[in-house]
Amino acid sequence: MKRDKSFVYGVATAAYQIEGAISEDGRVPSVWDTYCTMPGRIYNGDSGDIACDHYHRYKEDIALMAELGVNSYRFSIAWSRIYSAKGVYNENGMRFYRDILAELKKYNIAPSVTLYHFDLPQWAQDLGGWENRECAEWYNEYARKCFDELGADVPMWITHNEPWCASFLSYMEGTLAPGYTNMEKALKAAHHQLLSHGMAIKSFREMGLPGQIGITLNPAPIYAESGSFRDDIARTAQDGYRNRWFFDPLFGKGYPRDIAMLFAARCGTSFDFIQVGDSDVISTPIDFLGLNFYSHTVVRYRSSCYLLNEDGHTDLPKTDMGWDICPETLVDLIQRIRLDYTDIPIYITENGCALKDCVEDGAIHDSERADYILRHLETIRNINRKGLNIKGYYCWTLMDNFEWACGYGKRFGLVYVDYETQQRIPKDSFYAYKGYIEKNPDIC
Ligand code: FCB
Q1: 314 and 298 in contact (C-beta within 8 Å)?
Q2: pLDDT tens for each residue of 234-278
Q3: How far is it, in rounded angstroms, from Cα 228 to Cα 220?
């Protein structure tokens, strides 16, 4: 596989996790504003009402990115700032993102824009949300508007962030907004999100825009806890659920039949929401693949579990989220994607870890995070030595922020945020990443 040597180093954020300013300049509520008001859903009753107040402090935050030395910034647009109701465009909301692009330009930081990062406008949810096929049309209208208004200045677009989370975790496991626990709802949501992705890619091509466009998935390499037949069944089921349900249709193979049969057996769905022709739309070619990689998944068989598997045990060190630290398993994941699906460029669009950081004498000594990041960068370097073409790395995340159901209880930032004062303090990991970028302008 041929690749040029330039490498993208970035940081990633998402609108609801950092912006705050939830009712300014015509923004309307999203499903997250609603979810945060439901008792018991969010750790400590937290919400994104203020978050990092990035809406007002974006200049300071972009200056921090410049100091860090990244050449790209991945952020998301809040759909609920851009459309205040079905078909009602809000120019005041778009202005904020134009300001962000202008500020990034000053420092020569390339924007990478995610159109959808979990935050469906509540008006769309009230009309049935992602369970409603029409939601794909509303999304496409929103995407076209963003392409039209910002397209000349955006080299990299991401249609969706982690549709597995935005469908199964949101509609079946109930741990993200809107918080449902119904498998058929989740299957519909996943399908309509994938469909909307394909529609937006088609729009992008039709409009002849200059940038590149792709999607971000969060697959995991899946391992069986033991070498037994039953644990291999568990691995196959988890792989179908987490990985193949998204990779297969996106790369032209259609939905995998084995896991479809398991889904149908569990919830009795008729799959009538999948229409003839949808798979062609979903598999419209993309320019790159984004991957969010944090950890692997180890499973074991349990027949009483919905999808025949449950988390298995490992002795590996864990982050504050309880996720295993296992950078080398990224090699397996990339090799598998290259073998089974595609050779388009891959970007690691998120990677990072939560730790219990605390300020000591005005500094944050998070050597574990620095180590986590540097080990992943070294793994990427090894992957590229095998010629497997990873084009960029975005650290999650610039600064501590609202970590969805975990509220402000989990800190992932390179920069510490004191939520009382909104003071930003770069952690040791910030300087470690900065040093790595300086020493390694090209990664291979
Ligand atoms: C990912 C999300 C991101 C962040 C990290 C920790 O699943 O895309 O917004 O919460 O996890």
Answers
A1: yes
A2: 999 999 999 999 999 999 999 999 999 999 999 999 999 999 999
A3: 21
Q: Which residues line ligand 1 (CB under 6 A)?
A: 14, 17, 161-162, 165, 218, 292, 350, 396, 403-404, 412
Helix (H) or strand (E) holding 226: none
For 343-390, how does the pLDDT look when each residue is reduced to its tens digit (9 = 90+)?
999 999 999 999 999 999 999 999 999 999 999 999 999 999 999 999
44 CB neighbour count, 10 Å cutoff = 9
- Return the closest-CA partner of residue 353 out of 264, 262, 427, 423: 427
Q: How far is the CA of 118 from the centre of ligand 1 (A)?
A: 10
From 54, 115, 162, 408, mutation site for ligand 1 pocket: most ligand atoms within 8 A of C-beta: 162
Give alpha helix (H) positions in 208-365: 229-239, 245-250, 257-267, 278-282, 329-340
* H helix or E strand, kind and range, residue 111: strand 110-116
Q: Which amino acid is at 104?
A: L
Cis peptide leading into residue 219 (ω within 30°): no
For the chain, the 3-state helix, strand and coil shares in percent, each to the nearest 5, are 45, 20, 35
350 is annotated as an active-site residue? yes
Structure tokens at 383: 């992957």
Q: Where are the alpha helices (DSSP H) in 268-328?
A: 278-282
User: Would you call 328 a catalytic residue per the annotation?
Assistant: no
Phi, psi angles (nearest 5°) of residue 149: -80, -35
Catalytic residue from among 162, 184, 368, 403: 162
Q: Which of 139, 129, 130 is nearest to 87 (CA)?
A: 139
